[in-house]
Write a structure and sequence with these properties.
Layout: H1 2-5, H2 18-28, H3 31-51, H4 55-59, H5 62-89, H6 97-120
Helix pairs in contact: 5-6
């Protein structure tokens, strides 16, 4: 929804200040492109997690899947840490304490996904 509207942000998240739009336009990339890339990253992450429990995903080489999961976990973890820090310590982004709890849940679930795949696919 945000990408189609050319807006930065996350549904249910804080309003992104106008200064951030200006910064993106000058230093990063077009806001719409940035938001579509974020959307694509989220969809790819969901597909990757689903692949850990599907027959198709189990046919992929274990080292490749583990590498992809660890990289995705680092990316997801970075975003979740921002939710946690701003949600609980208010560093000025605008996330609420509930978002901080959500960040902790995301960190736990994604970490458990990686650990579960690692254990389920280890050689016997």
């Amino acid at each position: 929804m945000y990408a189609a509207q050319g807006k930065l942000g996350f549904p249910g998240g804080p309003e992104v200040p106008t200064s951030e739009y200006d910064r993106y336009a000058q230093e990063v990339m077009d806001v719409t492109v940035a938001q579509w890339l974020a959307t694509a990253t989220g969809v790819l992450g969901a597909v990757l997690v689903l692949a850990t429990v599907t027959p198709f995903g189990r046919r992929l080489p274990r080292p490749l899947m583990l590498t992809l999961l660890v990289v995705a976990c680092a990316g997801v973890g970075g975003g979740a840490v921002i939710l946690v820090v701003d949600g609980f310590f208010d560093v000025g982004i605008g996330w609420s304490p509930w978002h901080g709890v959500l960040g902790l849940v995301v960190l736990a679930l994604f970490s458990m996904t990686v650990l579960s795949y690692h254990r389920a696919t280890r050689p016997r």
